[in-house]
TrEMBL record:
Its cofactor is FAD. Belongs to the class-I pyridine nucleotide-disulfide oxidoreductase family. FAD binds at K55, G118, D312. GO terms for molecular function: dihydrolipoyl dehydrogenase (NADH) activity; flavin adenine dinucleotide binding. This is Dihydrolipoamide dehydrogenase. Disulfide bonds join C46-C51. The lineage of its organism: Bacteria, Bacillati, Actinomycetota, Actinomycetes, Kitasatosporales.
């Protein structure tokens, strides 16, 4: 092991995914010298094993489902998907798991890239152990930003390692479709991957410990998605957990809590995430290894004046777009503190990630899509708001019928009766992912219901659901 002398920067970022890249971009734009440390591919989980490959797999699935709802196209798309072509397109979107383009972009910002494992070695100090064992010491004049994200949580089942189960990484990067696939979980990764691989030729069994799917959304979201998945051929078993799993002569055998023995070629566990902080050197600065990092709204770790935790690692909102939002806030806050400028950290200020609390949007790319922002009805009531839920079916929207025959979906807005603003909005139906930003604006800006009447939706589009929601609120 060879050790080099220390190199000083204004900012050191540990983790070069989209969140870390955005922190670096903002601090460089403010004129601060910045180093980025990355142990794998620059661009991180989202670019190579999550958002981009998963959506590349799902897009042909959704396009085919939409086409099948349209007379004139139905016969043209009755055959199966060309799975090798879908996988090849997926590979293009991951740049074939090469990060040359990301490296060129980062270099264009003026930030320096260090390849290797980054660890804290005391306040404002980071050691980088490169692939050849060389250790580089980096010091930060103003801030160290941890953007190391999360990794898949696997259950504590005897012999699981020998089974070589899939996590989200294997599910999004597989080279062929398994003939039979068991998916364990009922959240976003589980439902999206079950949707994708069922359409790409796998026979999918979905094992859900709880009562239904997508339990962090309004109940009807999971119900409509489950109904459509079952119609597509997915075998959904709720109230079911895996008691044991083995691989016998290449075949995965899972025994469930109901006593069922299920055989498959692969098994995917989509059962949660844990912070990627177990080997980060947190103990050198008085923090617990492997823990989530608790931050204030400027994304600075509580109890420190130099350490920031940005993105999934702080457990505020495990979504790429929300992490990038936090990165913009954190970069601006680091720059302001470095310059001695006033910190605008009041709610909705330039240095406060206020949207993390009550205006987080998410889209689940199943068929139908499920999209939500803000609080569900149950969450709003638990928070003490006096609210009313307003529901409409998309069958009342002319644009839905034009979108496809038999269009099925539902929308809900949760109205705060004290201030007459929206606390949350949920859409379920084909194509609704493109509706959610309008709802995000309404929730984040706290647009009064009375003003929403003047935001006229174009006819005939899916957006007309907004008019139906307002009419339902007025008339009931």
């Amino acid at each position: 092991m060879t050790e080099t002398e220390s190199i000083a920067y204004d900012v050191v970022v540990i983790g070069g995914g989209p969140v870390g890249e955005n922190v670096a971009d903002r601090t460089r734009a403010a004129g601060l010298t910045t180093a980025v440390v990355e142990s794998e591919l620059l661009g991180g989980e989202c670019s190579y094993w999550a958002c981009m490959p998963s959506k590349a797999l799902l897009r042909p699935v959704i396009a085919q489902a939409d086409a099948r709802r349209l007379p004139g196209l139905t016969r043209a798309v009755q055959g199966p998907l060309d799975t090798p072509a879908v996988l090849a397109r997926r590979d293009d979107f991951t740049s074939h798991w090469k990060d040359d383009g990301q490296v060129a972009w980062l270099e264009g910002t003026g930030a320096d890239l260090y390849r290797g494992a980054g660890r804290l070695a005391g306040p404002r100090t980071v050691t980088v152990t490169g692939p050849d064992g060389t250790v580089t010491n980096l010091t930060a004049r103003h801030a160290v930003a941890v953007s190391t994200g999360t990794r898949a949580l696997l259950p504590d089942l005897p012999g699981l390692a020998e089974v070589k189960p899939w996590t989200s990484r294997e599910a999004t990067s597989a080279e062929t479709a398994p003939g039979r696939l068991i998916v364990v979980g009922g959240g976003v990764v589980a439902t999206e991957m079950a949707t994708a691989w069922q359409a790409l030729g796998s026979r999918v069994t979905l094992l859900v410990r709880g009562k239904g799917l997508l339990n962090r959304m309004e109940p009807f979201a999971g119900e409509l998605v489950a109904e459509a998945m079952a119609e597509a051929g997915v075998d959904i078993r709720t109230g079911t957990s895996v008691e044991s799993v083995t691989r016998e002569n290449g075949t995965v055998v899972a025994v469930t809590s109901a006593g069922d023995r299920i055989e498959a070629d692969e098994i995917l566990f989509a059962t949660g995430r844990v912070p990627h902080t177990d080997d980060l050197g947190l103990e050198t600065v008085g923090l617990e290894p492997g823990s989530w990092l608790d931050v204030d709204d400027s994304l600075r770790v509580n109890g420190t004046d130099w350490l920031y935790a940005v993105g999934d690692v702080n457990h505020r909102a495990l979504l790429t777009h929300q992490g990038k939002y936090q990165a913009r806030i954190a970069g601006a806050a680091i720059a302001a503190r470095a310059a001695g400028s006033p910190l605008l950290d009041e709610p909705w200020g330039a240095h406060a990630a206020t949207a993390d609390h009550d205006a987080v949007p998410q889209v689940v790319f199943t068929d139908p899509e499920a999209a939500a922002v803000g609080l569900s009805l149950a969450e709003a009531e638990q928070a003490g708001h006096r609210v009313r839920a307003v529901d409409v079916e998309f069958s009342s929207v002319a644009g839905a019928g034009l979108y496809g025959d038999g269009y099925k979906g539902r929308a809900r807005m949760v109205v705060d009766l004290e201030d007459e603003i929206l606390r949350g909005v949920t859409f379920v139906g084909p194509g609704v992912g493109e509706l959610i930003h309008s709802a995000t604006v309404a929730v984040a800006v706290r647009v009064p219901v009375s003003r929403l009447w003047h935001a006229v939706p174009s006819y005939p589009t899916l957006s007309e659901v907004w008019l139906r929601l307002l009419e339902a609120y007025r008339d009931n």
